[in-house]
Amino acid sequence: MIKKIFLLLIITSAIINASTVWTPIIIGDIITFVKTEKVRPGIYYKDFAITDLKYNPYYTNMDKVIKENFGKNYRVADWNDLKKFYYEKDGDLTDLFSKFNLKTSKYNNSVFVWYDGAKKYYDSYYDIYRFYYASWHEHNPPSNYLQHDEIDNSLISLGSWDHSFKILAVKKTF
Fold it and tell me: String of b and e for 21-44 (b: at least 16 CB within 10 Å)?
């Protein structure tokens, strides 16, 4: 029995990768493995999820982070997903941002999103790439906030800059 367990540990450690785990099932003398997705902690709300860590946009493959954190059924959320959630599905954005513990603020509690499929654009004035994010402003964005779009008179705003934020994900079936 000890040899079986030792062999099982060696086999198990050899077949784990970033997003998949082969879970062993032992029935008598037979060992079989079942493929399961490895999911890291995060916060889930309806069809959305948010990473538990903040990421630097210059050095992060956000698609890869979402796949590793939430599995193949999620993708990076697009600004248009938030608009669809609010306008077409009568979703409560205040509840969504509150569940994700994203308090209203000027900049710090925002989440990365794509905007029409793009994650960034080049700002020639500052000579930098700006990365898109959504912020909960409760109808009162800061005066120096570059607002590309807004939902419900700036309840939620789409901004851009180069800070580190958590990443908002959505189910691919959304």
Answer: beeeeeeeeeeeeeeeeeeeebee
